[in-house]
């Protein structure tokens, strides 16, 4: 019963992140801290807190590299720090199973925005300079959770 309540609050926070990120292109620290706190509760309930800490680090590593070195190479901010913190929180919610899960997460995270931008350009003849990346990260998280449950 406690897990259901925790997942309910996770869903509410993820919905809040999507709405605020799409409207204002910002991810609030309180949302990330809430997700980390709920992930900690799940870690204590399931007895796998160490796996969750490892998972948070492994999921975040590629995004830290993109944030740090991508900005230097392109002379433009590639990804916001709020997105990096969101990936850390989502990684903490997920348990580390295999590197294949991380690859799936990365592929979905980077391919779905390209599909979105391509579709928007084809149908609306409009290309955005900046997009909200949080909803795509959350979509990746949801698909990994569904994959784990199957």
From TrEMBL:
The UniProt record lists the keyword Transmembrane helix: yes
One GO MF term: aspartic-type endopeptidase activity
Domain annotation Prepilin type IV endopeptidase peptidase: ranges: 9-116
Cellular component aspect of the GO annotation: membrane
InterPro entries to which the protein is assigned, alphabetical: Prepilin_IV_endopep_pep (IPR000045)
Keywords for this protein: Membrane, Transmembrane, Transmembrane helix
Designated name of the protein: Prepilin type IV endopeptidase peptidase domain-containing protein
Lineage: Bacteria, Fusobacteriati, Fusobacteriota, Fusobacteriia, Fusobacteriales
């Amino acid at each position: 019963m406690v897990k259901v309540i925790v997942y309910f609050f996770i869903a509410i926070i993820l919905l809040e992140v999507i709405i605020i990120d799409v409207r204002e292109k910002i991810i609030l620290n309180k949302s990330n801290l809430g997700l980390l706190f709920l992930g900690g509760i799940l870690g204590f309930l399931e007895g796998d807190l160490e796996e969750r800490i490892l998972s948070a680090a492994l999921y975040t590593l590629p995004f830290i590299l993109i944030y740090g070195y991508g900005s230097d190479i392109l002379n433009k901010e590639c990804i916001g720090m709020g997105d990096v913190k969101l990936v850390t929180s989502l990684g903490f919610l997920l348990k580390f199973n295999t590197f294949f899960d991380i690859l799936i997460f990365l592929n979905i995270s980077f391919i779905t925005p390209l599909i979105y931008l391509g579709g928007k350009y084809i149908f609306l003849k409009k290309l955005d300079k900046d997009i909200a990346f949080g909803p795509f990260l959350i979509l990746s998280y949801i698909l990994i959770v569904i994959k784990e449950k199957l």
